[in-house]
């Protein structure tokens, strides 16, 4: 009888101990989950070599996930749309060109330039058909010219016409995005097309001619974050740039892998993408004085020629790791 009582007590003690350990374990696990769930990092991207490779290799994503973040990738087709999403808080990181970013700032957007690639003016140009009688910028007078509004193309054609003593009023602008402009150009509905890579190289591969590659017009890819994200998470901004730089260096060394990935994602032949990547450097750097100077000159010119209405002080929107 006494032995039975002792057995019951021992059973109760073991049960209580096991239950206590279970509660403790659950408490620790819950605490760990709360500590590790640091939130979501939202990355916007366009289909170019650097950001697409960064998304595909998952190195940045895996590192952030081990630190307790979740990562969401969102694809955009234009610089304007990705910057609108950044300004609205829908994404935390974005990549876009110089002119779309200046247009956005002139309209009141608020974001930070955090890094850039080197200028690659040969990645943009003015195209004419192989049998066109247009041989110089002056020959564009009175012609229909397709270009994307509020983009580097609009800036490029305006600057090119000015160099030949012409203005935008001397030609007939046709505002089309690149896919639509490509069709109009191939069907002869416009006389010239102002565009950037990969569209430039694709059209050139069909025998069309680059009328002018304006070396005097800078052309860079930039990377951005929101002002709030830069202030709250400077360590993540640096990590993002460091991973971009590693990817860019690898592409510069061997563009074939990136070209194959881009072919898969865009159906543009890898040979064309290899040409696109050979025209530029994909390495990424923190913002430097030259990039800021070029941006400011572009912003001043856009205001001068009437494409923007407000002054933009680029330095106000540049993030510095030391801040």
Chart the SSEs and their pairings:
Layout: H1 2-36, E1 39-45, H2 49-57, H3 59-66, E2 69-75, H4 79-88, E3 93-97, H5 98-106, E4 111-116, E5 124-128, E6 144-147, H6 152-163, E7 172-175, H7 178-186, E8 192-196, H8 199-205, E9 209-212, E10 221-226, H9 227-232, H10 234-253, H11 255-266, H12 270-278, E11 285-286, H13 289-304
Parallel strand pairs: 1-2, 6-7, 6-8
Antiparallel strand pairs: 3-10, 4-10, 4-11, 5-8, 5-9
Helix pairs in contact: 2-10, 2-11, 4-5, 10-11, 11-12
Tell me the structural class.
Answer: alpha/beta
> What distance lies between the first and last C-alpha atoms, to the nearest angstrom?
77 Å
| CATH level-4 homologous superfamily of the largest domain | Periplasmic binding protein-like II
Overall mean pLDDT stands at 89
- Largest sheet entry: 5 strands, mixed
Main sheet: strand order: 7-6-8-5-9
Provide a count of the helices.
13
Indicate the CATH topology of the largest domain: D-Maltodextrin-Binding Protein, domain 2
What does this structure look like?
By secondary structure, the chain is α/β, with parallel strands linked by helices. It folds into 2 domains: 174 residues, D-Maltodextrin-Binding Protein, domain 2 (3-Layer(aba) Sandwich), CATH 3.40.190; 92 residues, D-Maltodextrin-Binding Protein, domain 2, CATH 3.40.190. 50% of the residues lie in helices and 17% in strands. The strands form 3 sheets. It has a 5-stranded mixed sheet, sandwiched between helices. Strand 6, helix 6 and strand 7 form a beta-alpha-beta unit. The relative contact order is 0.16.
């Amino acid at each position: 009888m006494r032995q039975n009582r002792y057995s019951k007590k021992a059973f109760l003690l073991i049960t209580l101990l096991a239950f206590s350990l279970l509660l403790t374990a659950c408490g620790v696990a819950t605490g760990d989950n709360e500590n590790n769930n640091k939130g979501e990092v939202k990355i916007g991207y366009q289909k170019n070599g650097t950001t697409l490779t960064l998304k595909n290799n998952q190195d940045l994503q895996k590192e952030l996930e081990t630190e307790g973040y979740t990562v969401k990738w969102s694809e955009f087709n234009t610089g304007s749309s990705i910057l609108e999403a950044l300004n609205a808080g829908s994404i935390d990181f974005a990549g876009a060109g110089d002119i779309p970013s200046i247009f956005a700032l002139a309209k009141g957007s608020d974001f930070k330039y955090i890094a850039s690639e080197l200028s690659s003016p040969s990645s943009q140009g003015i195209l004419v058909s192989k049998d066109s009688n247009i041989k110089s910028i002056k020959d564009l007078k009175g012609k229909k010219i397709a270009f994307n509004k509020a983009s580097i193309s609009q800036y490029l054609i305006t600057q090119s016409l000015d160099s030949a003593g012409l203005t935008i009023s001397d030609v007939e602008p046709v505002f089309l995005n690149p896919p639509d402009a490509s069709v109009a150009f191939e069907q002869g509905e416009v006389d010239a097309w102002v565009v950037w890579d990969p569209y430039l190289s694709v059209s050139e591969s069909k025998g069309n001619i680059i009328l002018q590659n304006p070396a005097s017009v800078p052309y860079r890819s930039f990377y951005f974050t929101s002002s709030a994200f830069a202030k709250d998470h400077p360590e993540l901004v640096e990590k993002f740039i460091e991973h971009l730089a590693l990817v860019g260096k690898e592409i510069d060394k061997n563009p074939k892998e990136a070209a194959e990935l881009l072919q898969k994602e865009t159906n543009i032949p890898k040979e064309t993408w290899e040409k696109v990547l050979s025209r530029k450097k994909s390495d990424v750097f923190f913002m430097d004085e030259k990039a800021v100077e070029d941006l400011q000159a572009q912003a001043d010119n856009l205001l001068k020629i009437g494409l923007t209405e407000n002054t933009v002080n680029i330095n106000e929107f540049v993030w510095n790791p030391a801040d």
